[in-house]
């Protein structure tokens, strides 16, 4: 059992929403579609579900071509960003609704709804109506509806986006556990790199209707294929700068910062460097550190981390340090970059070093 | 810390007090004044207590006017609400058709009530009216000025023509506010068209429909101008609804006391029905 998109393309009028895409999701995997708003995540999901037809290409599920098959016949579940439940049904009836259509007997329905509501901590509120629940509980109900039937494909379209921070964290931790021991493919769309890292599995990075790359989440994160993938998969945004290499010396524009990196085997010339914010810190980290100076633009504390935006020559940089490091806006700051973690990209934006 | 007491806030409420006093309390109190007294002109009043109320509540004339009123309102709600929802469901959801439909739908609502009455009066004339003449040509013995059934038929047709649009517009607004994800979820569940209507569209339209029904109830229960122009309450008293009967009593016969008592009873019936209906509809609503 696998889900395969073969040369899938989606055009609406003159606009191309999805450029020719090939993807293959294997059985029992969680697959993240990571990209900003309008990257094509939702369109791609609707094509996978059968709610929308591709302009070109085919969708194969469990070695069958299901391209034109209606969504009701595909055995899929979907959870949306908005909390979608039937407003005049109780929570029990909402969860049971996908089962009732299949015509299994009421004892079975009771048992299944009982199990799923236990799993999602909804047992106490089965008699309530959706509008009597909190946002988190409403989304739990929607999740329960998706899990109650044995779907081969479960699609989650930014399910946590409308929840407040606390509830999001709570549900995000539970999510991967919900899909353990299930025979299904899970697809999870999100704009948050942290969602992808926490959930794990596999990730496809998307940009402007194209899938940039697909692979194990941790590999895509650590070794992005190119600059775009690195950019999509970084929050706060990754720092990117033009650099020059001559001999074993690298230098930023205007020679404001120079460093040596003998581990990297590259021809002399112009490159780009990608530095994740947490590799620029107020303290030295790693064996190979270099200094960078700049004027502080923004200094924010969040929880136990300090986010400092600063300007070096003509570029704005973002740094993320552990602990509380307060800086005044406008002051000159000295920070340290961990050279071993630098990602180098060639002029075609492809990654060229082993990180 | 002590709370500072600031009575200045009352100043801001004064304009509303004045407004409400002039457009509601003062006129209403005048009516109350008449309802408990007898007058023979020259501002001479004698106290009558509840006599007019008893008289009205026991009169056959009031009972039959009230009966006609409830029948009329019931019939037009029964026609306009389902018809309005049905039209709203078939209206286009995007493209130029939306504006065209919305403008067409608003047309009847923009026509003054007495013009609507006059229009339908002419249309329904048996000799020359488009409707009246056609019906007679088709072999129906149609004459709305002489036959009770025909008068009712014409009045109801006129009201449906005039006011169904209001239900359509409100229902359409309610339908448009439903997120597409609901329809997708129903599609995934394999729900049929009826289930989508019953379990998604109808509950989601509940609030606007409540407003639509309340507005239509109140307006039709107080209907005056259109039937007055169309039939003048006739033939006989066949289409003399409460307000028409009330005006006859107050200005035709100049029975100010009973007429005042009747308008108060009338007012409380409208208030009571609206209150009961609203509470029934909103029984299960706790929040958004």
How would you describe this protein?
The complex is a heterodimer of chains A (355) and B (288). Chain A has 355 residues and is an alpha+beta fold. Chain A folds into two domains: 2-232, Rossmann fold; 239-345, OB fold (Dihydrolipoamide Acetyltransferase, E2P) (Beta Barrel). In chain A, 23% of the residues lie in helices and 36% in strands. Chain A has a six-stranded mixed sheet, sandwiched between helices. In chain A, a hairpin with a 2-residue loop joins strand 4 (56-61) and strand 5. In chain A, helix 2 crosses helix 3. Chain A is globular, with a radius of gyration of 24 Å. The mean pLDDT of chain A is 89. Chain B has 288 residues and is mostly helical. In chain B, strands 1-2 form a two-stranded antiparallel ribbon. In chain B, helix 1 packs across helix 12, helix 2 crosses helix 12 and helix 4 (96-110) runs antiparallel to helix 7 (148-176). The two termini of chain B are 37 Å apart. The model of chain B has no long low-confidence stretch (mean pLDDT 89). Chains A and B meet through strand 6 and helix 2 of A and helix 8 and helix 9 of B.
List keywords for this structure.
heterodimer; A: 355 residues; alpha+beta; Rossmann fold; OB fold (Dihydrolipoamide Acetyltransferase, E2P); 2 domains; 6-stranded mixed sheet; 5-stranded antiparallel sheet; 23% helix; globular; B: 288 residues; mainly alpha; MetI-like fold; two-stranded antiparallel sheet; 12 helices; 2% strand
